[in-house]
Amino acid sequence: MRPETPTPKDGAAWITGASSGIGKATALRLAGEGWTVFASARSGDKLIDVAREADGLDGEILPMPADVTSQDDVRAAVDRIESNHGGIALAILNAGTFTMDSVNQFDADSFKRQIDVNYLGVINCLQPLLPHLLQRRRGHIAIMASVAGYSGLPLSMGYCATKAALINLSESLFLECRPYNVKVQVINPGFVRTELTDRNRFPMPFLMELDAAADALVAGLKRPRFEIAFPRFFAFMLKRLRAMPYWLYFALVARATGVNKRAKRRER
Ligand SMILES: NC(=O)c1ccc[n+]([C@@H]2O[C@H](COP(=O)([O-])OP(=O)(O)OC[C@H]3O[C@@H](n4cnc5c(N)ncnc54)[C@H](OP(=O)(O)O)[C@@H]3O)[C@@H](O)[C@H]2O)c1
Question: CA 221, CA 21: separation in Å to the nearest integer?
Answer without folding.
Answer: 18
